[in-house]
Specification:
This protein is mainly alpha-helical. Among the domains are: 1-66 and 103-173; 328-508, Leucine-rich Repeat Variant (Alpha Horseshoe); 513-585, no CATH class. It is built from 33 helices and no strands. The chain has helices at residues 2-11, 15-24, 34-39, 43-68, 74-85, 93-96, 104-119, 130-141, 148-163, 176-185, 191-199, 215-225, 234-244, 247-260, 266-282, 285-305, 313-325, 331-341, 345-348, 354-367, 377-394, 400-417, 423-436, 444-457, 464-470, 483-499, 504-507, 510-519, 522-536, 543-556, 558-571, 574-611, 613-628. It starts with a helix and ends with a helix.
Length: 629
């Protein structure tokens, strides 16, 4: 029925019925399925269909052009003629007939039918009527003239034509690409638009971006690099990395990304790093060299020399470069990282500016080990020794910010590469950490960072046996004058306790911990309570054991016991608190009952002795007689 209705509308040139049929397609209350109808058409019927639609398209384009072209000078001539003759001139009969206006709904319906037909060709023999191709090419050429639904229909048709890889697809995509690019770069764009742009990625090869006439398109492409929507989805990242493979786009895009790095988040900077890394990995020759020397090395140099106290740029650059550092297990990446750092890294570590030394220290530790796989074994060992001694030197740098960064980096390296590092280097590092830096009087942050580094190393199973031997030597740091240092020390004890290999009271004696619990700040008391909770209040033990440990704590330090139970109630759930309270009440009740019974027994004995003195004397006489006999 729908097939016959469509053919009748075409034969009778009935555009209203044609539009109505398209509007009913796909509706729930309608049984019109034009995709099924078109699949039933023969080739002759397809040719007839698109010949009619091509004629309608030409007619509508002509009307649109006529409507938009003003009749220049017509009114002026008519007025002059009227004044000269003094009478009205009748209009021609043909001019009196009102022409039909341009029908936007008809154009949209034609495009909808074309889209339905093209999308139905997937997996089937691709028969494209000549008139359909002419319609597509014609509308593609005029796509910038249209607006609204018609322009959207042309874009959708040409996109589908490209995705279906139909014949002559290169002739229906060039003008569409800027529109899809605008949609993906707009303020209200969504991932869907970026995914549509990614689907047209091969079409970019048809455009000579180095041509000056394409400068507007190039500007739009550069704007993509500064749009964070593109780095929020995988298709956008692949699109940007594909643009970096074009030699003419590398420098402009790199400049664009540099403008947004100061304001982006760490996660976004990592995504930008992924764009660079993918581009570098998939490139070769001149493009790869440009990416290394003009882009990656440029950011490395900036990361060393940027002011770390001025905004987020320093942190973002370090996070950006970390993406490359964590891929250094691949030999080509490791060699590239060393080659790009080598020209300026070593002199930056000795620069007069403390911020430069601090930045270089952080990058050196994050990129450790810097290796060039083109070197001989002897040269690589020498390079490692150079890095070891450099880091030991940085631990005693005059600038406390450099020392903090060095401690953070060195302890992370020890935690990750413990078995690789020579024992003499490890001993030297710990001599610096535990003898000098843990008691650094110039900066509490340095002392805190040492303890944080120890906590980090406790996660390394290889480092724990060594730490078991050295940690008991640092117990006096528990009494540091700075509260942050003391709280970090307790956090280290909590980490030690969780390992169950080292006993925390071997590092700091129990009476020392209780004394600190008695006198320290609420923050410290909460941490110490957490440390001692399972020792003096074991939830899983029997009630008798719980009472025994409670009494032991009270005997050891009554004031500390008060603080302990003040914060313990916040660490336990309600049933555990109620159970302990009832247990104490039962013990007190039993104690009071026993005391009351003993006092009653003593009073009764005393009353008996006072009310019966004669009996008592007679018994004493009998005893004396027996003794005499």
């Amino acid at each position: 029925m729908a097939k016959q209705e469509l053919l009748t509308a075409l034969e009778e040139n009935n555009t209203a019925d044609f539009i109505s049929l398209l509007q009913r397609h796909g509706k729930k209350r309608s049984n019109v399925d034009l995709q099924e109808v078109l699949s039933e058409f023969s080739r002759a019927q397809h040719e007839f269909l698109w010949s009619c639609l091509y004629a309608w398209t030409n007619e509508q384009l002509t009307r649109m052009v006529v409507e938009e072209t003003p009749a220049e000078g017509a009114g002026e001539v008519a007025d002059t003629h009227s004044l000269d003759s003094g009478q009205t001139v009748p209009m021609d009969a043909e001019e009196a007939v009102q022409k039909e206006p341009y029908n936007e709904k008809l154009m949209a319906a034609i495009l909808d039918l074309a889209y339905i037909y093209i999308s139905s060709l997937e997996g089937q023999e691709n028969f494209i009527p000549d008139k359909l191709l002419e319609v597509a090419v014609l509308l593609h050429g005029m796509v910038m003239v249209f607006e609204g639904a018609v322009q959207d229909g042309i874009v959708a048709l040409c996109e589908m034509w490209w995705k279906q890889q139909l014949d002559e697809r290169e002739h229906v995509i060039i003008n569409i690409l800027p529109l899809v690019l605008d949609a993906a770069s707009s303020k209200n764009a969504r991932r869907k638009e970026v995914q549509s742009l990614w689907a047209l990625r091969d079409a970019l090869q048809l455009i000579p971006l180095s041509d000056p006439e394409c400068h507007l398109l190039v500007e739009k492409l550069i704007a993509c690099s500064t749009n964070t929507l593109f780095i929020s989805c995988d298709e956008g990242i692949k699109w940007l990395s594909g643009l970096f493979s074009r030699e003419s786009m590398i420098i402009p895009m790199h400049r664009g990304i540099k403008t947004v790095l100061p304001s982006c988040t760490r996660a976004q900077s990592s995504k930008y790093a992924e764009v660079y890394f993918r581009s570098w990995k998939n490139s070769q020759g001149t493009v790869k060299q440009m990416l290394e020397e003009e882009c990656i090395q440029d950011l490395m140099y900036a990361a060393v020399h940027v002011d770390p106290m001025a905004g987020r740029l320093s942190a973002n650059l370090h996070h950006f470069l970390h993406h490359f550092h964590r891929h250094k297990k691949h030999h080509t990446v490791a060699t590239m990282v060393y080659t790009l750092y080598d020209p300026f890294m070593w002199r930056s570590l000795k620069a007069a500016n403390g911020f430069v030394r601090m930045n270089a220290t952080g990058l050196l530790c994050d990129a450790f080990p810097l290796l060039d796989n083109t070197m001989t074994q002897e040269e690589r060992e020498g390079l490692l020794e150079k890095q070891y001694h450099t880091m030991i030197t940085l631990l005693t740098d005059p600038c406390h910010l450099v020392r903090i960064t060095a401690i953070k980096g060195v302890t992370k390296i020890l935690a990750s590469y413990w078995l690789m590092i020579p024992s003499n280097i490890i001993k030297t590092v710990f001599q610096k950490l535990l003898s000098d830096l843990l008691y650094d009087a110039s900066s509490a942050e340095v002392r805190t960072q040492v303890l944080k580094g120890i906590i980090l190393m406790l996660d390394s199973n290889d480092a724990v046996p060594f730490l078991k031997e050295v940690l008991p030597r640092i117990g006096d740091a528990f009494d540091d004058i700075n509260g942050n240092v003391r709280s970090t020390f307790v956090k280290m004890l909590l980490k030690v306790k969780s390992l169950k290999i080292i006993r925390y009271w071997d590092i700091v004696p129990m009476n020392h911990i209780l004394h600190r619990l008695e006198e320290d700040t609420p923050v410290m008391c909460k941490l110490i309570t957490q440390l001692l909770l399972n020792t003096f209040h074991p939830i899983q033990r029997e009630d008798q054991e719980l009472l025994h440990r409670t009494l032991a704590l009270l005997e050891e330090n009554r004031a500390a016991a008060r603080r302990f139970y003040q914060y313990t109630s916040r660490k336990l759930d309600l049933p555990s608190n109620v159970h302990f309270m009832l247990l104490i009440l039962r013990c007190l009740r039993n104690y009071l009952l026993n005391q009351q019974a003993q006092e009653g027994q003593q009073e009764s004995d005393h009353e008996n002795s006072n009310t019966n003195p004669e009996g008592k004397n007679k018994s004493q006489c009998r005893k004396s007689k027996k003794q005499v006999e």
